[in-house]
Amino acid sequence: MEGPYYPRAIPTDADADLRRVAGQGRQAAGRPLLLEGQVRSLDGAALPGARIEIWQADDAGIYLHPRDGRLAQRDTGFQGYGRAVADAAGRYAFRTIRPGRYPGRTPHIHLRAHPPGGGAPLTTQIYFPDEPLNAQDGLLRRVAEARRALLLARLSSTDEGQRAEFDIVLV
Question: What residue range is the signal peptide (predicted)?
């Protein structure tokens, strides 16, 4: 589900590094996160050229969106939205932060993947397996328990923060 906070206007700086906004000298607050994965077809073939978008809340749980009532307090050093194109091996990567909590939801990252050459995009949300609020999140609970693992990133530590791996299969 796209959710209520998909950007109404795409930011001028919409690259794959959400931790820095062009023209600003500081990095976003929050725990650094490298989000990466591979885009494949149902038969397992890599999908180079697939376009991936992500959007998420900042460290304080505030979205870059006019409907977020706390927009005036958001981290202006955080991009909030980014785009990437899968390479020849179907791999993509974003430098971002671990999103903050906002009322009623567990931390998550929204993702939309567009198949190369057109076709219907996949829109989903990426969740973190170590979040205690997952068990209370209304949207995540709507997903059959046997399928929830498909929405969880695989986490590991890095020198800079955390790495989240999330693979995408497009039909």
Answer: none
DSSP β-bridge partners for residue 10: none
Number of domains in the chain: 1
Nearest to 74 by CA among 86, 63, 90, 87: 63
Q: Which H or E run contains 142?
A: helix 138-142
Within-domain flag for 146: yes
Which residues are within 8 A (CB) of 89 and not within 5 positions of it... i.e. 6 or more apart? 38, 46, 48
- Sign, CA dihedral 94-97-138-83, equals negative
Does the pLDDT value for residue 111 go beyond 90? yes
Q: What is the pTM of this model?
A: 0.94
Q: In terms of Cα–Cα distance, which of 32, 12, 28 is closest to 20?
A: 28
Which domain does 133 fall in, by range? 32-170
